Amino acid sequence: MLDSTRRPVVVDTSKSPHARLRPLPLTDVRLSDGFWGPRRRANREETLPSQYRHLEETGRLDNFRKASGKMEGRFEGIYFNDSDVYKWLEAAAWSLATDPDPELTKMVDAAITEIEDAQEPDGYLNTYFTFERADKRWTNFDLHEMYCAGHLFQAAVAHFQATGSTRLLGVATRFADHICDTFGPEEEGKRRAVDGHEEVEMALVELFRVTGDRRYLEQAEFFVDARGRGLLGRPYGLHDPSYSQDHSPLREQDEVVGHAVRALYLYSGATDVYAETGEPELLKALRRLWNNMTTRRMYVSGGLGSRHEGEAFGEDFELPNGRAYTETCAAIGSVMWNWRMLVLEGDARYADLIEHTLYNAVLPGFSLDGGHYFYENPLEDEGTHRRQPWFGCACCPPNVARMLASIPGYFYSASDDAVWVHLYAEGSAEVRLNGGRAFRLGQRTNYPWEGDVEIQLDGEGEFAVMLRVPSWCEGGASIEVNGEPFPEQASPGAYAEVRRVWRPGDAVRLRLPMPVRRVEAHPYAAENVGRVALMRGPILFCVEGADNPGLDPRDLVLPNEVRLSEDFQPEQLGGVVVLAGEAEVSPPGEGWDGRLYRTATRQGEKPIGTTRLRAVPYLAWANREPGPMRVWIRSR
Amino acid sequence: MLDSTRRPVVVDTSKSPHARLRPLPLTDVRLSDGFWGPRRRANREETLPSQYRHLEETGRLDNFRKASGKMEGRFEGIYFNDSDVYKWLEAAAWSLATDPDPELTKMVDAAITEIEDAQEPDGYLNTYFTFERADKRWTNFDLHEMYCAGHLFQAAVAHFQATGSTRLLGVATRFADHICDTFGPEEEGKRRAVDGHEEVEMALVELFRVTGDRRYLEQAEFFVDARGRGLLGRPYGLHDPSYSQDHSPLREQDEVVGHAVRALYLYSGATDVYAETGEPELLKALRRLWNNMTTRRMYVSGGLGSRHEGEAFGEDFELPNGRAYTETCAAIGSVMWNWRMLVLEGDARYADLIEHTLYNAVLPGFSLDGGHYFYENPLEDEGTHRRQPWFGCACCPPNVARMLASIPGYFYSASDDAVWVHLYAEGSAEVRLNGGRAFRLGQRTNYPWEGDVEIQLDGEGEFAVMLRVPSWCEGGASIEVNGEPFPEQASPGAYAEVRRVWRPGDAVRLRLPMPVRRVEAHPYAAENVGRVALMRGPILFCVEGADNPGLDPRDLVLPNEVRLSEDFQPEQLGGVVVLAGEAEVSPPGEGWDGRLYRTATRQGEKPIGTTRLRAVPYLAWANREPGPMRVWIRSR
């Protein structure tokens, strides 16, 4: 029984008993701003078509043609390459929902045809396990069969919601049925197994929500519960079971460990399960993990994953800047998880982190031209790390594409008698509250470069507008309704509830002061001792060689008393605020020539002069000529 | 034509045209001190017998029995496991040279029999490439065939020198001949290839020196020259060619990169080649690499290898403390390379680093009980990193054993009319200079815990005693001969030349003041900003939980004005100097509760009290109950 409403929403909690917030369809949200607008245009015009070409040119689509017998030859590439096709399809589906495009529709339909034709009669579908490997299906759970299935399911849900077509959804449910028939409790005559790379869990819950088939939810729950019981053994030989979060049952875990993307996808799926089941122990574990992650194991960018080795979270406070792994996919996984936590109760902490992560950890992975990507996102670099048009392991590019295509779905939520404004950008939304009250909500703002937001409401009756006051807005926000101060407390890191009887033409003005903030890290984060990161509003800044020619950013010292200017520069990097101010240049003294260690002189380094420091948003770094870059700069 | 002198020496530069220093046989050096003595006893009594048991119990010796057909079954373990047997044999041979032991001789002879019997008729020998893999020989140069061969050659040289037996040497030369017949220039009808893991280069030079067969030297030169020309391709899929130093010809390299042990073994082999050929470009490259390593990529312990990923050197100043890889084998490789550089011209920089590395990077890998080892040697730890009795990849344990067994060979050298004293410890040596002058040299000292050394000379005639004044002895040393000040400049980091006409009973007194030094790191080494490491003489100290119960060493702040007491404690950790003094306890303030980043307050942390800080030598850490450990402590 398919959900007849069929509206494209990011995570459909419309009927989830343990979620307070309901999604707004992407199609009801318009972004007409100068920040997301150009990025979403690049996503449509450059990213999606060029990624389709990469899928063709690297043989990823051919693998489906070979599997169906339309083309000669063997599988080519990495065993999880099918997932890139699915993620691209999901991205394309979201894009078609908001921006119909006949050319893109053709590509989507062609890809779906190849997928349909490659599916086995029993529902199984994975082009790596064809021909000589056909009998190796479900024998090695580190080969991402369920991971690929999960991405197929997510793509299918998005495609159905966006287009109404059940073609891909049919493929997905046939495969999901195969998985449900194959895996489960032994007492049901099934196999107990979990996948090395989580993903299928949240996908199954989404499939449940769109089909109404409770079996998929139960299967997701089974996979969440079965993990951490030794089923995977020691994945990949070198890796510990914690690599796949398989070291203990999720409900007993209290530290985020192992491969960061896997972890975040697991937490996302488990949160989806909680939204349906409401089991308190599960939520407790998720909150413990979130607290450990955000207070011990997260970069100032919101980036996650400190180690190249195992693409893993590190120990508490293990946050190297140059060797930060901080995979773009992990940032996306964090947005996905935080969104699911947010809609449970509407706790602004999660929305704060979504905003912060989008600007400072997801977007750095994406070039301004829309065709180049970072896999790793270090917080400092000597100028050698550059975005690539594609990767052999190409998880990040289509992940960025689906995030950008679906971003309107993250701006608002509805609850019984409130509309929730999570993110700010010029644009509008059609809001429908319970009981059928519908109205138009407009945002006029220059966010994220200015902190004034005017919310125009074209509705009638009593309801609340929940305005997120970001945690960075430490001095507090001010709110006016129709020019009069509104008494509601607008404390940072919470939603200000503006509840009243509304009349058409009412307007709320939210003022979020955006002073430049010098941010310091916990003293146990060893690399950042004596350093600050610059933030302004939600935006993290960095010092980049292109703006500071001939200067080693390691030698910059920003005195506390220096006031930084803040200028919006429309010609710079697609239009960004640039910070500038007088800084000291304090290179290592001559006593360090040819030495790495010495008896402490306690003299410190002495400034040899000053320079005009310029800092640009970290999200836009590496879009100009290569040069050194640093987020954390010395201060005094 | 075997060298008839057959005296066990660490690296036999007796006839090397481009080496100034000649080795003293191990058998002519006695260590009767309280530092090396007990460690060498543990090596003989616990390490060597227990390692032999491990070789048996893990099937490493059985692999030879299987290869020769004496035992049923297939190869077991990792493909380079043969090398552990060879390294153990080398260690045992050195030990037998100075300390005959019938039980150990039996084990050695038994192991050699298995090796002899497993050798193929054509000289090839590698038990991994037997049975079904026999036809895979020399097809994948990342499978360590030449690496294993090199360790066989080194063991054979040591065994021949120590015992006069040519049994193992015969095996080695047959295999070396096979390698020389197989690999070389195409124009000689041979295959161009290099091994993924360097080692065979230095082993071939050693084989040349003991046999006089110049072909082995030429083969070593060929392997050094052939590297960096794309022969290896992209080793291990994930790794870059720099992993095996194969990214460019050695003579063009100027940064130490890739797998640290491989790199150090390559540099050692290339230095051996230089000692014979004297090619200036090769020495220039080696000096460039040494400078890069010691001024940019070395831990304060002398440890090398910053990355777990690829067991690799990092970028300049990439020196994380908790995630330091600093493999014990890399420290040993550094001693081996520095020894080879030292004997070229007698530059004290290399001897300084040998001393420093032995105390602070090799010995931490070895437990006081002689039966447990570190593979990785982090400079800080939360109490979870503990020495193990053995490893699946067991390169480090027998490497430590051969270093300890051969350590007397690193104490002295001879040149035409000088004896060189590189290291200090109570003991004696029989010295033979060119022209046959022979005399006994005694050392009376409590080194490394006290800096007074009395050198007693029982010789006659004019010659020089070259006394290393360590670079840590920054205030300069004082020298007396027979109680009278000797005018020779004794500046730190150089050899003081005490040249005169000696009479029996003469004595030289060297005074090396050992104040506690607070060492700071180059300001680009980000984790060490605001911190110092404590050193006294050649010994690096650390703060360990066992001495500072209930204290988080991250919260310690050592004020500059605090004078640390220095007490030798004979009952502690086998007898060590312990440093102690009043330090501040300055934990993160309450403002950090539940936060990882915040707007900078510029207040810093405030001390909440003081505590008696105690610091013990890093070389002895983790020999008591587990607890946190730090080398770098905060200072103000």
Automatic annotation (TrEMBL), chains A, B:
Gene Ontology terms for molecular function: hydrolase activity
Annotated Pfam families: Beta-AFase-like_GH127_cat, Glyco_hydro127C, Glyco_hydro127M
Keyword Mitochondrion tagged: no
Source domain of life: Bacteria
Entry-linked InterPro entries: 6-hairpin_glycosidase_sf, Beta-AFase-like, Beta-AFase-like_GH127_C, Beta-AFase-like_GH127_cat, Beta-AFase-like_GH127_middle
GO biological-process terms attached to the record: carbohydrate metabolic process
Keywords noted in UniProt: Hydrolase
Residue span, Non-reducing end beta-L-arabinofuranosidase-like GH127 middle domain: 419-514
Domain Non-reducing end beta-L-arabinofuranosidase-like GH127 catalytic positions: 28-408
Domain Non-reducing end beta-L-arabinofuranosidase-like GH127 C-terminal: start-end pairs: 516-634
This protein's name: Glycoside hydrolase family 127 protein
Organism of origin: Rubrobacter tropicus
